[in-house]
Amino acid sequence: METNDAQSCHRCIAAIDHVTFSYEHKKVIDNLQFNILERDFVGVIGSNGAGKTTLLKMLVGLLKPTQGEIRLFDQPVGQFKDWERIGYVPQKNAFNPLFPATVREVVTSGLYSKKKIYKRLTKADLQKAEDAMLAMRIEDLAARRIGQLSGGQQQRAFLARAIVNNPELLILDEPTVGIDAESQAGFFRMIRHMHQHHHMTFIMVSHDMEMMQAYLGTEPQQVSGGIKFYVKHTHDPEDCRETNLTHSIGQIREMIGIQ
Ligand SMILES: Nc1ncnc2c1ncn2[C@@H]1O[C@H](COP(=O)(O)OP(=O)(O)OP(=O)(O)O)[C@@H](O)[C@H]1O
């Protein structure tokens, strides 16, 4: 377990601690040990059926490990309540194409949590939804029905919904499936930007080896069963002791192209 304090950029955000998972008698994940640290981008790659979706579902508490434990922000997932700190875009979004919600309504629905379900949304809450749509460049689609949009536009709406609470950890399950190559590239650019400039931590399943390796490198940090974990931190390891200020300076350098 990581012992870094809250000031460190290597705080453990999610710990997968000797986790095994079986569907009835079929073991899908076997004694997996992996930590996701603050500001990591973790790319999860593996063949069909390797257990990637199962792993993400355990991370968000939808499935319970058969053995072992998952901790989010140092709390066992079963007791974790701060779901606003986490954004999740599942593999296949369950919206029926005829579902009569607008993009704005879908994005706003991300503001409701168990805690807030009976609360009225404030003006500030509604502004968060507008900001998330702006960030995903779908503000001009706000009043359109979600089912009438292209796959790429829908994915941006689901991502806007996932970031509406400004989460610290974003969990994405094959977010670019079914969208054209150009939109996929745009989507990756957006995600990379969020990682590098908005201090978000990511875990993302993808079959797009080329895009993933272009950002995360060609060597996995860990291989467990059929799952490979590729990891990129927002800055070089030797800079890890830097302060928040130097972190920002590093990013400014990067933005203006100075190495
Ligand atoms: N609800 C379920 N009941 C029984 N077996 C399941 C269930 N869900 C998944 N499985 C099986 O568990 C294994 C892992 O499934 P999972 O969806 O986690 O794989 P994946 O790596 O995400 O695959 P893909 O790349 O195809 O999305 C597969 O063999 C799958 O058939």
UniProtKB/TrEMBL annotation:
Keywords: ATP-binding, Nucleotide-binding, Transport
Domain ABC transporter: 14-249
Keyword check for GTP-binding: no
Top-level lineage group: Bacteria
GO molecular function, one term: ATP binding
Pfam families: ABC_tran
Stored InterPro entries: AAA+_ATPase (IPR003593), ABC_transporter-like_ATP-bd (IPR003439), ABC_transporter-like_CS (IPR017871), Metal_Ion_Import_ABC (IPR050153), P-loop_NTPase (IPR027417)
Keyword 4Fe-4S: no
Record-linked PROSITE patterns: ABC_TRANSPORTER_1 (PS00211), ABC_TRANSPORTER_2 (PS50893)
PANTHER family tied to this protein: METAL TRANSPORT SYSTEM ATP-BINDING PROTEIN TM_0124-RELATED
Similarity field: Belongs to the ABC transporter superfamily.
This protein's name: ABC transporter ATP-binding protein
Species this protein is from: Paenibacillus hexagrammi
Source species taxonomy: Bacteria, Bacillati, Bacillota, Bacilli, Bacillales
